Amino acid sequence: MTCIEALGLRKSFGTTVALDGVNLQLPEGRILGLIGPNGAGKTTALNAIVGLTPYEGQLTVLGRDPWAKRDQLMNDVCFIADVAVLPRWIQVSEALDFMEGVHPRFSRVKAQGFLAKTTIGRAHKVRELSKGMVAQLHLALVMAIDAKLLVLDEPTLGLDILYRKQFYDALLNDYFDRGRTILVATHQVDEIQNVLTDVMFLDRGRVAFQCSMDEIESRFAEVTVKPENAAAAKALKPINERQVFGRSVLLFDGADRQQLGALGEVRTPSVEDLFVAVVGSRAGQAQGAAV
Amino acid sequence: MNSASNVMNESPAQATTIAPVAVSWSRQLYWCVRRELWESKSIYIAPIIGAALALVACSISAMRLPERMRSAAALGRIDESGIIAGPFDLAGLLIMGVTFLVALFYSLDALHGERRDRSILFWKSLPVSDLTTVLAKASIPMLVLPVLTFGVTILTQTIVLVVSRAALAGSGVQAEAAWSQFSFWHMEGMLLYHLVAIHGLLYAPFYAWLMLVSAWARRLPILWATLPPIAVGVFEKVAFNTSYFASWIGNQLGGGQNSAAQPAGGMSMDSLTSPLPGEFLTHPQLWINLLIAAAFLALAVRLRRQRGPI
Predict the structure, then answer these.
(1) Domain range for residue B90?
(2) A50: which chain B residues are within 8 Å (Cβ-Cβ)?
(3) Model pTM score
């Protein structure tokens, strides 16, 4: 079953185009990383998906129109926005009471189980918790909801490395299963790439690149080329070139790995490398055009 | 039958996801109202402080009650019941004044605060509609505060009654005639009527207007709430040398003199002695006010849907 289906999704604020015809098909059971520079339209796309903003084009989430049916959709969708949005005055026990009161799929027992693994007490107010603990609390509340889609917008922004790692570990170990779908927007690419099943690069409102992680492994190769092979390597049309310690590192799309092996050391590029290659070169072109 | 139950047992997880799950609307509304009480503790703390203040003042005043009764009797004045009723009215007005202010400031912040602290993103991530949220918030000034005011006031006035009785009985002043003219339950009945009719229903458009502004304004909702009506009044005065708008507003805030709630006119609690609910409910003014309030709230729901954090 398709979880999210977007066709020609557009959104502009005045003269600024935030989303410029985005197409997306996300089947159930995937973890999609939405990656892009600041201002690429990630937050706008996520807001459209969870029904916080109107849009042009077609968008269906779990079979519903998010803008028209936000309150119904939220029975099956969880959302953690890019900053700490839990109200600072609320007490942990009040948050649990309220969630239990209004959310049909919230399990108080589960939430208390997640909270028991932290140092957060029932009587704590959000304003008394550290940033990392607020993120833990929000994640505990969200993971206790038996939802089909979890949407995360820079959920670990401003957290230290231990909390960030914990956050994604908890998500994978305690929450994710084949029946659920996760959509996460971030620019801390390296930390989540082993969590993802799919990636999508967004740049200036457009989809710059879309691929599954398996496909990245089979399609892309990065070669640290020996100086004497430089000309031969460039003849194979790399999609990107960078210099590391005076040696050329070339990125190839769909080239034969055996052939590349003769030119130098071959490895699978990280998502970050791909991102820099795809989005960085586009940005360079745009700058060049502007000059 | 058997096979069905077997299937259920085999896949409990599947059964729970397929089963239609929903929380009833009234339950969501109830929790949204409770949420407001958690967030704005002033809703009940302020009236309690007002009541405590009134109690202290009335107790001090009660010490002088026998003396005042004696001097009134010496001067041959017959409004002894007025002297007895004074502290009750004062306590009632003090508490009512406090809750009215709380209601105004609550309404002005109701849909602004959640955008200011970005918590609207959390509230909107839950399956609660904007309509439910706005209605829960509107119920605070229009329903919760009047009822709370009544409860706190009746409790305060009961204590005032006991203190006054004790002070007079201890002093040996003959006051039974005065007490016989004073009806505690009649006073409380009038109070309840006043709170429901005027604070709950006639003031509804004002609260709704403040909520609308709080959903709309990015900054300083208090200015947006007050300056436009003042501007309309001044414009009307300068352009046409009339003041229909200003007097209409004043009339509403004054409890609708010459209109719905007060067939006899006048504003003080004493003059509210002959409310006729039938007349009140059939008065067009009431229904016009309620329509205006509904329109403002509908706009506020729309705005909440569209607006994000500030």
Answers:
(1) 38-306
(2) 124-125
(3) 0.86
